[in-house]
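Write out the 3D structure for:
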Amino acid sequence: MGLVIPVLLGSVRAEREGIKAARFIVRLLEQRGHEPILVDPLEKPLPMLDRMFKEFPAGTAPAIMQELAALYRRADGFVIVTAEYNQSVPPALKNLLDHFLEEYFWRPSAIISYSAGRYGGVRAAVTLRTVLAEMGMSSVPSVLSIPSIHSALSEDGRTNEPWIDRAAARMLDEFEWYAQALAAQRAAKGVPY
C-alpha cells in the first residue's frame, strides 16, 4: 500500500534550484508506489504567520490553510526540501511549517538539503531537525544533502551523479520503515488523523 507524502519545498526565490530536488524526490516516491504531493509555497502562498490553523474557529481559516490541513491529516510522513540561508532554513519554509502543528504529530520526516556550494545545506538540515522534532515529526537518521545543486541535478530532477541515487534510496528505505511503523501505531491507538 502506497504512502501519502507531502513534499514541502522551502524556496520561493527567482531561479530557485530546489525545485530540481523536489522533482527528483517526487519521481522516486512515485516509482516506489507512493502518492507524493508537492507543496510549493509559490503555488500555495500562505501569509506571514499571524495565526496558526488551529487558532481559527472551525471552518474560518483561509481556504489554502484548510486545504493543507486536510492534506497533512491524510499524510503518512513528510519530505522537506530545504536550501541553506545563512546557516539556517529559508523563511518561506519556516513560515510554511509554522502554520500547522497537530497535523504533523506521529509522522516521520525526511530532509533533503541543498546548496550551490560543497556543503549541500547540511547546516540547514541540522537546524531543521530540531524544528521538526518539536513539531512532532522527527526526521529519519539519513539526510540527503546535495552540494553544487546547479550541476548535480537536471531541470527535470534527474541526477548527474550516481551517489545521489544511492543516498536517496537509503534515506527512503528508512523513511518508509518509520512511516509504516508510525501508521500502524496511529491506527492501533485510534489517533483521529
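The helical segments are 18-31, 63-74, 91-98, 122-134, 149-152, 162-189.
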